[in-house]
Amino acid sequence: MLGALEAPVVMVGTDPVEVDRRLRGGELCCPCGGGLSPWGHARQRVVRGAGMLRPRRARCGSCLVTHVLLAVSCLLRRADAAEVIGAALTAKAAGRGHRPIAARLGRPVSTVRGWLRVFARNAERVRAVLTALLAQLDPLTGSTPVRGSVFADAVEAVGACAAAARRRLGVVGAVSPWQLAAAVTSGRLLAAAGPSW
Ligand SMILES: [Zn+2]
After folding, report:
1. Residue 30 C-alpha to ligand 1 middle, in angstroms?
2. Residue 78 Cα, ligand 1 centroid: separation in angstroms?
3. Alpha carbon of 90 to those of 110, 115, 116: distances in Å?
4. 3-state DSSP call for residue 31?
5. Cα(121) to centroid of ligand 1, in Å?
6. Residue 48 DSSP one-character state
7. Cα(21) to centroid of ligand 1, in Å?
8. For residue 60, how far is its CA from the centre of ligand 1 (angstroms)?
9. Quick check: 131 and 144 in contact, CB under 8 A?
10. Which of 80, 120, 159, 193 falls 20 to 30 Å from 62 in CA-CA distance?
11. What is the pLDDT of residues 158-190, one digit of tens each?
């Protein structure tokens, strides 16, 4: 599903009013460092577990690239919230199969199997990125425990990063471990082409 039409994404908070205020106030930056300004909206869609969303678009004044401002409650091109998908990944890391996970979350078996399969493909890179973030957040943490599979190690790194962020920054407010993971991977935890950063 990824391709040339893929819009670059900038991850933002979950409160659209706050996002709008920051965007209009010139507080949001393009990855190139340029300032972003409002540029209409992306298509409205329902994200199960996160509600009806109509992401903002923003254009960079330096590189002129138009970005979609994706809330950290979402993953790129997924119809379920980061939290819901994260719950499935956590359950899988704990040894559960895709059928019971799907039943518990009330999602189709094929959908859940798809999440698990793509995350397994991306797990090594996800683990690498989150481990690097963990070292920045808490240089004294040391390495995260090894769980015996890259999949489980990546899930472990998500939790460890969130815990380190809480220690380092105080309470992280409403940002959950999986929202943090969505933010640092630009929503590409389950991107078919793998996270690119
Ligand atoms: Zn730019």
Report:
1. 5
2. 25
3. 18, 12, 10
4. coil
5. 30
6. B
7. 19
8. 5
9. yes
10. 193
11. 999 888 888 887 765 656 899 999 998 989 999
Structure tokens, 8: 């670059």
- Look up residue 133 and give its two tokens: 């973030």
Q: Is 66 exposed, middle or buried (0-12, 13-18, 19+ CB in 10 A)?
A: middle
- 3-class secondary structure, 117: helix
194: left (phi over 0), alpha (psi -120 to 50) or beta: left
Q: How far apart are the CA of 42 and the centre of ligand 1, in A?
A: 18
62 Cα–ligand 1 center, Å:
5
- What's the gap in Å between 147 CA and the centre of ligand 1? 39
How far is ligand 1, taken at its centre, from the CA of residue 58, in Å?
A: 10
Note the pLDDT tens digit of each residue in 24-62.
Answer: 999 999 999 999 999 999 989 899 998 898 999 999 999
Q: Which two tokens stand for residue 77?
A: 């091109």
How remote is the CA of residue 98 from the centroid of ligand 1, in Å? 40
Q: How confident is the model at residue 5 (pLDDT cuts 50, 70, 90)?
A: very low
Six token digits for residue 195: 């996270």
Residue 101 CA to ligand 1 centre (angstroms): 40
Centre of ligand 1 from the C-alpha of residue 71, in Å: 19
Task: From 92, 150, 96, select the one nearest 126 (Cα to Cα).
Answer: 150
Beta strands in the chain (DSSP E): 9-12, 36-41, 45-47, 51-53, 56-60, 66-71
Q: Give SS3 for 70.
A: strand
